C-alpha cells in the first residue's frame, strides 16, 4: 500500500516518440524511436494497439537483462530492440500490412510510470500487377494452358493461387480448382522486382469446359483477381450461326409461299362470290350479308 500510495504517472513529455505518424512500404524495415530521461531506467516496454483498440505487449526489458518477448512476436524473428541509457528503440523487419497499428513506448521506475504519445505506423501493400493470358481459337479435343502472371516490386513470402470458373447457368465465383505455389519465379536485381508465372493445364477439352476462368493470387496480405480468360469454341459458334441463318432463310421462304397461297385463295373465292351475288341481283333478291361481303371483298384479280 505504501508503494501504491507514492506511485505517480510520469508526464508524456518525459518520454518522446519522435514520429506521430510513420509511413512504410511492405517489405521495408522500420525503426520506431523512443527516448526518455536517464532517471527512468527500471522497466521499458513496447505495446501494439490495433485498429479495434486491442493492446498487446510486444516486449519488455527489466534493467539490463535480456528482453522478454511475447511469443507471437518472438517466433516471427522480425522484431528487435536496441536499449540504451536514454532510449529504447523498436525495429520491425520486412514490414507487412498487418503491422499497421499504433505503437506505444512505456517506461517505468519504482515510483513512476510513463508512456509516450504513440507512433501510428501505416504499412502500404506492395504494388502488384496481375495479368492473364488470352486465347483466340479452340476446338474440342485441344489442350490448353491457362497462364497467370504476377509482378511485385519485391519478394514477400509465398503466393497462393486459386482458379475459378464462371460458366453459363453458374454464379460468379464458383470454385473450379485450387493450386498452391507451383509456378516459376524470377528475380530482377536491377529493378528489385519479382515475376511469377502460374499455369493451369487442361487436356482434351470439350464444350463442358467452356466459360471464363479467373486467376486469384494471395500475396503480401492482399488478394488480387485477374480479368479472366474466356474459353470459346469456334466450331460451335460457327454451327450456331449457320443454323440461325438457315432458320431465318427458311422462315422467309415459308412466309412468301404462305402469302402467295392466301393471295390465290382470295382471288378464287372473290370471283366465285362476285358471280353468285351478280346472279342474285338479277333476280332482285338482295341479302345484307352478301352486300356486306361485297364491300369487304375488294381484291381485284385479273386472269389473262
TrEMBL record:
Regions that span the bilayer: 243-265
Q: Name one GO cellular component term.
A: plasma membrane
Kindly provide the name given to this protein in its UniProt entry.
Uncharacterized LOC107603130
- Keywords assigned by UniProt? Cell membrane, Disulfide bond, Glycoprotein, Immunity, Membrane, Signal, Transmembrane, Transmembrane helix
Subcellular location(s): the record lists: Cell membrane
Give the source species: Sinocyclocheilus grahami
Q: What InterPro entries does UniProt report for this protein, alphabetically?
A: Ig-like_dom, Ig-like_dom_sf, Ig-like_fold, Ig_sub, Ig_V-set, TCR_complex_component
Which residue ranges does the record assign to the Ig-like domain?
27-109, 141-217
Which terms under GO biological process does the entry name? immune system process; response to bacterium
- SUPFAM superfamilies tied to this protein: Immunoglobulin
Q: Which PROSITE patterns match?
A: IG_LIKE
For this UniProt entry, what is the primary localization, expressed as one broad class?
membrane
Amino acid at each position: 500500500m505504501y508503494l501504491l500510495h507514492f506511485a505517480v504517472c510520469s508526464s508524456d513529455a518525459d518520454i518522446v516518440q519522435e514520429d506521430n505518424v510513420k509511413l512504410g512500404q511492405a517489405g521495408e524495415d522500420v525503426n520506431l524511436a523512443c527516448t526518455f530521461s536517464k532517471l527512468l531506467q527500471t522497466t521499458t516496454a513496447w505495446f501494439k494497439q490495433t485498429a479495434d483498440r486491442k493492446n498487446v505487449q510486444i516486449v519488455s526489458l527489466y534493467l539490463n537483462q535480456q528482453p522478454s518477448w511475447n511469443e507471437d512476436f518472438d517466433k516471427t524473428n522480425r522484431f528487435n530492440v536496441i536499449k540504451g541509457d536514454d532510449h529504447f528503440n523498436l525495429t520491425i523487419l520486412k514490414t507487412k500490412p498487418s503491422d499497421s497499428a499504433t505503437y506505444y513506448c512505456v517506461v517505468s521506475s519504482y515510483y513512476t510510470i510513463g508512456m509516450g504519445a504513440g507512433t501510428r505506423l501505416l504499412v502500404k501493400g506492395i504494388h502488384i500487377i496481375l495479368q492473364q493470358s488470352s486465347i483466340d481459337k479452340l476446338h474440342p479435343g485441344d489442350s490448353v494452358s491457362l497462364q497467370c502472371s504476377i509482378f511485385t516490386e519485391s519478394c514477400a513470402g509465398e503466393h497462393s493461387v486459386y482458379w475459378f470458373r464462371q460458366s453459363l447457368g453458374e454464379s460468379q465465383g464458383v470454385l473450379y480448382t485450387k493450386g498452391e505455389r507451383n509456378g516459376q519465379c524470377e528475380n530482377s536485381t536491377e529493378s528489385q522486382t519479382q515475376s511469377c508465372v502460374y499455369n493451369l493445364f487442361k487436356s482434351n477439352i470439350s464444350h463442358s469446359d467452356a466459360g471464363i476462368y479467373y486467376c486469384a493470387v494471395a500475396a503480401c496480405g492482399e488478394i488480387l483477381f485477374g480479368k479472366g480468360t474466356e474459353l470459346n469454341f469456334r466450331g460451335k459458334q460457327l454451327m450456331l450461326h449457320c443454323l440461325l441463318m438457315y432458320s431465318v432463310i427458311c422462315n422467309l421462304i415459308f412466309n412468301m409461299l404462305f402469302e402467295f397461297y392466301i393471295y390465290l385463295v382470295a382471288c378464287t373465292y372473290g370471283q366465285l362470290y362476285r358471280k353468285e351475288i351478280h346472279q342474285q341481283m338479277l333476280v332482285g333478291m338482295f341479302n345484307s350479308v352478301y352486300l356486306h361481303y361485297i364491300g369487304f371483298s375488294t381484291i381485284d384479280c385479273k386472269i389473262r
